[in-house]
Amino acid sequence: MKKLLCISLTLILFSCNSAQKPIEISLKKISQGNLYGNGQEQIDEQQMVITSQEDWINLKKKIISTGNSSNDLPNLSIDFKERILIVLFDKQQTTGGHSIEIVESEQTPDKIIFKYRKSHPEGMATSVMTQPYYLASIIKTNREIIFEEIK
Asked: PrcB C-terminal domain: from which residue to which, for each copy (predicted)?
């Protein structure tokens, strides 16, 4: 009887998996494209979280300052009471065909991790100054947001 009890307890203790698996987060892609302002927007390579209308307006002004973005961002409105923006900017490129995007996301009880990838053209590409960007929104959160590049 003791052996059976010991074996049962051992099986129960070692078969329990207490490690929490990450939960994928719902990411709503809003825009993806390139800036064509030859750097006049003065936006550095970066990953950012925008949590207020004021910050969004300031960034939007920079993006549309040259009138050379590949998408129609001026009409984009975000409800910052409900959502926040996740924004990625790659560095300026001397050719077309580059992109940046979030390819994976997961959340734990204390943080959200966004994994992103930069794509580059293979072979010949148009000779034009571009700066790839990616814009998405998620439900408002107080968790720490972390960005990781997948190479």
From this structure: 85-138
> Which residue did the predictor score with more confidence, 92 or 18?
92
For the question of whether the overall pTM of this predicted structure is more than 0.85, the answer is no
Place of tokens 């993806």: 32
d(CA 53, CA 55): 6
**E strand or H helix at 53:** helix 53-64
What is the pLDDT of the chain when averaged over all its residues?
Answer: 83
| Host H or E run for residue 101 | strand 99-107
Question: In which element (H, E) is residue 1 found?
Answer: none
Please write the tens of the pLDDT for every residue from 10-53.
Answer: 545 555 554 555 566 789 999 898 888 777 788 899 999 999 99
Residue 75: phi and psi, rounded to 5, are -90, 0
- Tell me the three state secondary structure of residue 19: coil
Q: Nearest 5 degrees, angle CA 130-CA 89-CA 131?
A: 5
For residue 76, which amino acid is it? L
Looking at residue 83, what is its pLDDT? 96
Residue 6 backbone class (left: φ over 0; alpha: ψ -120 to 50; beta: rest): alpha
Answer yes or no: are the C-beta atoms of 102 and 138 closer than 8 Å.
no
